[in-house]
Amino acid sequence: MNGLKTTMLLATLTGLLVGCGYLLGDVYGGGNGQHWALYALLAAGVMNFIMYWFSDRIVLSMYKARQVGPSDSPQLYRIVERLARNARMPMPKVYVIPTETPNAFATGRGPSNASVAATLGILRLLSEEELEGVMAHELAHVKHRDTLTSTVAATFAGAISYLARMLMFSGGGRDRNNNGNGMAIVGAVVMMVLAPIAAMLIQMAISRSREYAADAEGAYLCRNPKALANALLNLQRGVANMPMQDMGSPATSHMFIVNPFKADAIAKLFSTHPPTEERVRRLREMRV
């Protein structure tokens, strides 16, 4: 069911992108809406191709992640190795991020070329059982290729917002308006306002759905939903005390198990993560 929902939401994002391109071309491109819609779709395809092949390297570099082996970070490496074996997955590359903000994320196109990363802060904060729950959550993302899905959703949402800004700041619409194309102008204004909001809401829905699924899958993998629930609570408190400030970008917050950046009330309302309390409740109700 989650897979079907995600597919439908990605299809909706695609439709929004094509619609923005069509209106941009119809209002500001001499009435060539169909051509502009195709250009928008092709541009998004190119961006997704780049992100598909290089997003893991980009993100790991952004967070100054250092690859570790069994002698560099024995506890973390041992946990990931055991979980990967239990899940019958290839062993992912293991990275440590040099920040005291407690968190973790997974990246890569799929199980055969995945990486998992944990911060120094999470290694100091969590018990071994809690850390195992977190890494099980991340391997669940890898198993279901959620990192790729989230990257595609974020790319489409960003492209839609960019096209909407072009609609907002382009001045070419005045000529079309003088020619009496009022309906197209109205449609452009509506799209300009609503498309970025809709794209953001869809991206949030995809991310939240995949977080719940990874919690459940991770709890089954480590056979300890309570440990993962406790880890989420400790991470929420840890991030509140020490949010990430020295590296990274809020645009990548959806990759982490909890949002590592300080969020105001508006940001929390539009968070890509479900409420921690609801995640904990679901985990504590699980029986494995």
Give a quick precis of the structure:
It is built from eleven helices and four strands. The protein has helices at 2-28, 33-62, 74-86, 120-125, 128-143, 146-169, 173-178, 182-222, 225-241, 265-269, 276-285; strands at residues 66-68, 93-97, 104-107, 115-119.
Looking at this protein, list some descriptive labels.
288 residues; mainly alpha; Zincin-like; 2 domains; 11 helices; 4 strands; 68% helix; elongated
What does this structure look like?
This protein folds into two domains: 2-56 and 147-199, no CATH class; 61-146 and 206-285, Zincin-like, CATH 3.30.2010.10. The longest helix has 41 residues, at 182-222. It has eleven helices and four strands, in the order ααβαβββαααααααα. By secondary structure, the chain is mostly helical. Helix 1 (2-28) packs across helix 2.
Q: Which secondary structure elements does this structure contain, and how are they paired or packed?
A:
Elements lengths: L1 H27 L4 H30 L3 E3 L5 H13 L6 E5 L6 E4 L7 E5 H6 L2 H16 L2 H24 L3 H6 L3 H41 L2 H17 L23 H5 L6 H10 L3
Helix pairs in contact: 1-2, 1-6, 1-8, 2-6, 3-5, 5-8, 5-9, 6-8, 8-9, 9-11
Number of domains: 2
**Shape-level CATH architecture of the largest domain:** 2-Layer Sandwich
- The count of β-strands is 4
Structural class determined from secondary elements: mainly alpha
Mean pLDDT: 80
CATH class of the largest domain, please? Alpha Beta
List the helices and strands in order.
Answer: HHEHEEEHHHHHHHH
User: What does the oligomeric state look like here?
Assistant: single chain
- DSSP helix count? 11
3D shape: elongated
Low-pLDDT runs:
171-180
Going by CATH, the homologous superfamily of the largest domain would be: Metalloproteases ("zincins"), catalytic domain
Helicity level: 55-70%
Ends apart, CA distance between termini: 21 Å
**Could you tell me the radius of gyration in angstroms?**
21 Å
How large a portion of the residues is in β-strands, by DSSP E?
5-15%
> How are the strands ordered across the major sheet?
1-2-4-3
CATH topology of the largest domain: Zincin-like
